[in-house]
Amino acid sequence: MIKKAVLLTLLMTVFVYGCGYKMAVTGTKAAFKIYPASIENVSKEANIDHLFENEVKSYFSSINALAPQSTADYVGYVTLTGVSSSAAVKLTSGQTATFDLYATLNITVKDKAGNDIFVKSLGSSVTYNQTSSLSASVSNRNNAIKQAVRDALETFRYEFENR
Question: Which pTM value belongs to this model?
Answer without folding.
Answer: 0.79
